[in-house]
Design a protein that fits this description.
By secondary structure, this protein is α/β, with parallel strands linked by helices. A four-stranded parallel sheet has the order 2-1-3-4, sandwiched between helices. About 45% of the residues lie in helices and about 10% in strands. The protein is built from five helices and four strands; from the N terminus they run H-E-H-E-H-E-H-E-H. The protein has a single domain, classed as Rossmann fold, CATH 3.40.50.450. It is globular and about 60 Å long.
């Protein structure tokens, strides 16, 4: 007697996205020092027909939400969890910028552990040297810098 195949939550998500006919979802990652480049990448990816998720808070800029150090630490933890959820939701990850710090390296490792293809605006910073080549048309120069 054969047993029905049980699907993982990830497999259910992939099937649901396919069933809904959703376009590719791209999670933009990188240092918040590259927020302007992330906005440009968001524009390019959206114009290419992809759904984009990316960091929504730049905690390096002053704001009342993270003005108190205790609030800032709790918020950073929640934002890190939220960003990992965006990576799980995404079909692929785009690393923006020409610098990989500890947080971005952690995002790359998390994406790899979850089997997500990774592209780079600056492939030379790929810590593993095996990122996907740029999509058709590549990463426009205005996003690279």
């Amino acid at each position: 007697m054969s047993h029905p195949q049980l699907f993982t939550p990830e497999q259910h998500l992939v099937a649901a996205k396919q069933g809904l006919g959703l376009p590719v979802i791209v999670a933009i990652c990188g240092s918040t020092r590259f927020m302007d480049a992330m906005s440009k990448a968001d524009l390019q990816e959206t114009a290419a027909g992809r759904i984009v998720v990316r960091p929504g808070c730049d905690m390096k800029q002053p704001h009342a939400l993270w003005g108190d150090p205790a609030d800032a630490e709790a918020l950073k933890h929640r934002l890190d969890e939220l960003h990992r959820a965006k990576i799980r939701l995404a079909d692929e990850v785009l690393i923006v910028g020409d610098y990989i710090g500890n947080s971005t390296r952690s995002e790359i490792d998390y994406a790899r552990a979850n089997g997500k293809p990774i592209r780079y605006t600056h492939p030379e910073v790929d810590p593993y040297g095996d990122g996907l080549p740029p999509v058709a048309g590549g990463i426009p120069p205005e996003v690279q810098g």
